[in-house]
Structures are given as structure tokens and as C-alpha cells.
Fold these 4 entries.
Entry 1:
Amino acid sequence: MADKKTHDVKPHDVKPHDVKPHDVKPMKPEEILNLIHANRGTAICVPTMTTGPHWRTIAPDDLSVGCVGFMGGASSLGLGLALAQPDRRVLVLDGDGSLLMQLGSLATVAGAAPRNLVHFLFKNGVYHTSGAQGIPGGLTVDFVAMAKGAGYRMVCAIYDIEDFKRRLPEILKAEGPVFVELHTGLADQTPMTARGGVPFPKQVSDLRAKLLKPRARA
């Protein structure tokens, strides 16, 4: 687990939190996912909605379970995995439209206080999967403030891909629960345009089998 130095991370030192999303070029979700994939190590990953298609392309056989069929459930699914696997990092790849469906999960996660959970929120202001309709509040919704108020140990908003690249190793080592709001454009694919993938029950059984295998000794 992370040492006490992670407590010194200032949650809003990435950029002033009053920077407007349209003041900077949105990050590409695929670039963010590629960076997470390259740095995740042995973490369990929980993609959902528009993070799903690209993730299953770049990480088809890793420790992943996609949150499909229950919009807004990614953070709760990730919480359960984090509590069941306290010695392994769990990364939730959430969307703003999805999280709005289950805002109460912020308080649930914070209350359980899993030290190994990182909650990434891909914020684009729309329900992209169903046709890019605007979410309530659009880009003005402050998920960082809500996560901080709920009690997440570390929170931040990131607007720039180079900034994300620089901070990602620190984020992945920080003591959780960690909440990272990522200001992005729209993904190239959605579950509606890139159908297929492994059915959820099969994903769960496959992940369980992998987690039950003894870890290889260094």
C-alpha cells in the first residue's frame, strides 16, 4: 500500500478548479485508456459504457470485468472487488452519465474507505452511448466537489493529457479511495456501435478463476 507521503498530494494542484472545460482541448478517452493500460500492473479494471469497447481491444485477457447491463454500477462493482481483494489495486473506469445514475455510491465508497480503489471519471457532459444527449447539468456538474464532500481520501480534476501522463504513476500509488475527474471528448466507439464482447456472467467467472490462481513468485 502507499506510504504516508501520498497524504501530502494536493487534490487541486493540477490546474485551478475554476478552469472551464471549454478553455482547453478535451483529452481523447482512448489516449487515457492506453496510458492506464500501460501503467496498471496487476490491477483489476472495471470499464463501463464508452470506456468498454476500447478497453476490451487493448486488454482482452487482463483482470477486467465490464459493468454492462446496470448503468451506474461500476463504482459499486469496483468497491466489492476492492474489499474482496485488499492487496490488489482496483481501477474503476466510470462515466459522468453513469455516475449520475448512482450518485449515492460516492458516499458508499467513501464510507467503506478502500485504500486500494481508484475511481476514474470520464467527463464529457453527455449520455454518449444512447445518442449523446446532454446529462443534467452538462459540464457544470462538479463531481470533484461531490467526491470530496462524500469523503474520498484524494480528489482531483485533470484537463490535459501530458498532465495526466505525469501524474498517473502517483495516482496509482496513492492511498484510496481516490477520485480523478478526467475532462474528455467523445470516444470513437460506444457499446451501441461496437457490439459484442464476452457476456457479463462469463467475465465474472473468468475473473474469479484468475484471482483464485496463486500469484507467481518474483
Entry 2:
Amino acid sequence: MATTKDAKRLPSGRIKYRGETFAGFNKPKRTPGKTKKSAVLAKKGSEIKLVRFGDPKMSIKKISPADGLIFALGTSVIRQKINFRQDIGLVRHGNDTS
């Protein structure tokens, strides 16, 4: 396994290892055009290892504030229905008896 001596620290503070630059140890970066979506130069003690991960065909789904609001509204409607059913005796302890 490689050691920290195999990686070179650049004047900008970044790390160069096997022709790739990284922001630092244990800092993931995107790798467009590679076999995996991301890479990280992992460090444990004085040993380092280049780890690639992520399926390049899968999209990264980020939740926008609007999506979060829609999700919150949907769950609050469901909670209101459950509470209503509990109030009239249709549901006991979350189990539907109908």
C-alpha cells in the first residue's frame, strides 16, 4: 500500500497523487469521464489509497426547498387523516381495522 511519501503537496496546498490533484486527504471529488462518479484519496495513519465510488449512470438527486415543502405538506395531510380516523375510532394504535 502507498504511503504519504508517494503523494506530493503542491504550493497551492493541494495534493497530487498518480497524476490527479485532490483538495486534501479524505476529501471527495467528482471525476468526470472516469469509470466511477467520485474519488477520494483516503488516508489512515501514514497509508493512503485512491478509492473510486459511485455509479456514473445514476443521477444525484438533490432536494430543493420546494420539494421539501411539498413532502412536508403531503405528510401533514396524511397525519391529519390518521388523527381524524383515530378520533372517530376507525384506527387504533396505527392499525387500520376497516
Entry 3:
Amino acid sequence: MIGRNVSSAAACLLVCCCTFGQTKDDATAAWKPVEAALGRAGQLQPGEVYKFALPRRDMKIVKDGVTVAPGLALGSWLAFKKMGSEAMVMGDLVLSEEEIEPVMLKLQQEKIEQSSIHNHLLGESPRVIYMHIEGHGDPAVLARSLAGAIALTKTPAPTPATPAATPQAIDLNTGQVEQALGYSGKVNGGILQFSVPRIEKITEGEMEIPPAMGVATAINFQPTGQGKAAISGDFVLLANEVNPVIRALRTHGIDVTAMHNHMLFEQPHLYFMHFWANDDAVKLAQGLRAALDETNSQKPQVK
């Protein structure tokens, strides 16, 4: 009897695993026309979001003596989510000054809207501008329109994906940084990255906007040697959190480089605060934790 029960349980587990894998594969397959239109592969994210990374590896940007890596502050991205028979796309395009007008005109001609155009950094050379976009419609048509706009930039083609045999090495004590910040991060392209969702639901119209569509606080560490790191990213804030977070960041030696909207019609209305510093990584993580404590964000995971 025990053997039969064990066998039944094992069979049930196998069926569940196969069903989950099949569901994920089916969800990924549904986005193949979008991948074909964009000419690059995406990744399925929580919240049924299909996201594309477009790092600006072509840009050579220097700020305060630090050569900015794509994963620190130069990563364009596009995120798609199904809405019935159509889809919504949101994203952030990293552009040089001369790329702004051609890209904007092309997107307007294709009925893809701009929700904000602004800086994220201060004093970088050459100047970088960030264009936030939103569109609704057939996902493959949206992807073709976006591909046409991206073709007007020097955004490089994707590099062939290679399976990572071992975890990426990074010149930081990631354990100490994670403990000081209170969250687990991941190493991507030599950058230690954190994403901290807010607790409340963010909506636009009747649609929920998942954290993977750009409404989670993003924190990035780029090693600069001897335990130091350059940090950049953005806090996602409600109005009453803006000044407490500014005070927490400035008290801990972290510069606030910009504050603005990224979207137009979200509820509740959000403010995005960008930051920069280059100092001891653990010390900066402690300052960022103090700022996160002023927000209604997901509670710390690492003690």
C-alpha cells in the first residue's frame, strides 16, 4: 500500500511538473511573433510579462571618472503584457541626443506614445536621454513599429546567448551588500542588481501593471575596486515618500540626480527618483536601505 501511494505521489508530481513546464513553454511560444519582429529573444517574467533587454553596449559614457556599464544605467528595455486579444507595451529607450527626434517622430507615426523624456544621470559625458514609451494593439505590430524606431539608433544587435556554466564572478562582497540592503540580488553583466516591488497594486485603467513593467525600485551596483561601487537606479515613490527618501539618500552621501514621472495615467500616481554615488558598497547599501524603509515596499528578505 505504501509503495502504491509513493508511486501515485511521484506520478502526480511528474504530471504537475510537466504541466507547469508545458504552460511556460506555451506562454513563451505565444510571443515568438514579437521576438521575430524585434529580431531578439525576450524572457517571460512574473505577472505574465514578456520582457526584452536592449543594452546600449555601443555607448561609451563616463561619469565622475567611472565608465558606466550598460547594466548600471544604459539598458533600454521593452515589456509586453497581453490585454485580451491585444497587448500593452511599456519601455524605456536609452538614447543619444541626436537620436531623440528621429525616434520620437517614428514612434508618433506608429501611434506609440511617449510618456516622459528626461535625464537619469547628471554630468555624464556624452549626454544620455531616456524616452519612456507606451503602446496598445496587436503585439507583433507594436514590435515591428518599435523595431523601426530602434533601427534609427545605434543600439547593437543581440549577442548570441551562451549558457552560464558557473555563477558570474563580481569584484564585490555580494553577501555583505545583500545583508546591508536586506534583499537578494542577481549578478548580470558584471552588475549586482536588485528589484524591490511596492506592496500596493499599480493600475492603468482596468489593467494591473506588474513590477516587471517598470514599477519596482531598481538598484544597481557596479564594482569600482577596493570594495567600492558606483550605484544607480530609481526609487518608485508616492508623493508623501518623496522628501523622506531624498533626506535619507542625502544623509548617507547619495546624490539625487532626477525626479519625475515615467507614466501618465497610472494609479496611484508614481514619482521616480534617480540616484548616484561611488563609495564603499556596504556603506551605500546601508544608505539605500534607510531610503527603502521610508517607502511602502516589499519587506526585507535578508536578515
Entry 4:
Amino acid sequence: MRNLWKNGRIETKMKNQTPIIIMNFSGIYKEEDFYKGDFWKGKDFRKDKEENTGENMEGKGIFWMELQDIPGTNCYCDEEAIAEINKKTKHLTTAGIHFIDSGNYHYMTRLWLAKMEVPFALLVFDNHTDMQPPAFGGLLSCGGWIAAALEELEDLCHVILIGPDEAAYEQVDEGLKEKVSFLSREQLQKMEDEEIGYYIRTALNEKCGWEKQDGRLSLYISIDKDVLCPSDAQTTWSQGDMRLDTLLSCVQTVRECAKECQAVIAGVDICGEADMESIHENQANDLANQKLLKAFLGSREYAGSETVKERDCKE
């Protein structure tokens, strides 16, 4: 078997190809089309029966990770489940774009961040703080993973959190807030896209040192689509007001700033899928995933066909 991991990075046949990791916890991605298209040469790799550790996706740039068979993963992740997930991801770094299923599995970001080996900052778009106090014996949870990361990861220097409402943020431990820059839902409602972009650029320069010649922090980006309005996504949790176009504008700002400052975006993850029981409401999520994927990869790198049809979004 050919080794796809060299010098700590995924190697693919296509030069400079960004790996895309799809983490199948609930089965929802089997019902989506955003990762299909001419670029993937028609291979329906979801039906591949061999143990998927990446080798059966060689040359496609996409890695399907089957996790439905691991118990103890829904909303909370127990120690046995963490061990199984870590076993499946042991050859992978944070590099790439990770689709991590619904918001019930947002704690996966904490597990990916554990692989960071340099000082870094975290940019989060979410309708919730995900900094709730631990419950059930301190189990890692979708509602407390940012707090866990801040408390446990020495290399995590700062968090830029965009989306939760002010009342929720008031409940966050004051000690955690010392490392957090916060842009609330209420503030977002009053801002134009350009103003939000300016806030992000300023935070990256001031908190991550991106304007400096040295000492720039690497950046990991985590997006929960529940930050979006219900017209642009249908998720398992309460949702915010942001439009998809605004989120895409934010992504573009980060990419432009990284290029200008020669800074590193270490990795990306995206969650916020619908429940399997709500599959009929999933079309907006599929479209959002496709547009986010294209925004992160850039039009030059994204060679997939437009497999997801646009739908009318009503306020």
C-alpha cells in the first residue's frame, strides 16, 4: 500500500492539492452532493467497502472517514470514543478542510487542534459560545470544546469568536475571556460586510501578529453553520442571522489577509449539518458546503462541477 502521509502531511497525486476530509458520524453526508463532480472522476467512494484510512481516496483529494460505528460520540465524546477517533486520524495533521457533520460533533475541532505543534489562534463562527462548564464528569462536549481547548492546549494563544449573542457570552468564565476577542450577534446585526471584514482584519493583525515580520500565529478556522440564518442553513441547533454571502465575504477577507501577510492558515473545519430525520431540509446546507469549499480552495483549485442547485432563499 502506498503511503499517503509524508513528512507529516497528506501527499496526493495532484500538486498543491488541499486534502478534504469528510467525517461521517451520522450518515448525513451520504445524502449530500457538494463533494461530487467531474473533479472526482465519478467515483462513488461512499460505497467503498475497504477500511478507509485514506488510501482508497488516493488521487481524488478527498478522504472519507467512517465513524458511524463508534459509540459515545453524539454531543458528548467519552474517552473510549476519543481513543477510537484518534486512532483513525493518527496519520493526519490539521492541514486540509474537515467536514465534521452536525454541530453535535463540533468537539472534533478540539481533537484536530491537539495536533497543532506551533503557537496558533482560533477563528470561530458559531451561534453559540461553546464555552459551557464541563458536565458529566468533564466529558468533552459540543457545547464546551472551546473552553476545553483554552484550558488544555498551551499553544492556543487566542480565540476570535464571531456570532453568539451577548447574553450567552456573559455566562462565560472571566478567566477564559482574557484570551478571547468577541463579536456578538447584536453587533453583527448593525454591521455591513465591509465593517465585519475590517474587524476580522484588525483582530488578525493585533491578536495574531499578522502584520509583524516574525512571530505570526498560525490560524485554524472553525465554522458552525448555525451562525447562518435559517434561509441559508438548516441545523440541529438554534441559529443566528448571518447570511451565507456575509460568511463567504469573511472567508475571503481571511484568505486575502493571509496572502498579504504571508501568514499560515493551518486548517479548517465546517459543521452544522441537519439531522438525518430532517434530510428534506438539507439542501441549503449542501449548497452552503459547496460555496464554502469553493471559497476556501479558490476558483483555481476548485475543479468540481456545480452539482448543487441554487435555491431561492427567503427572509
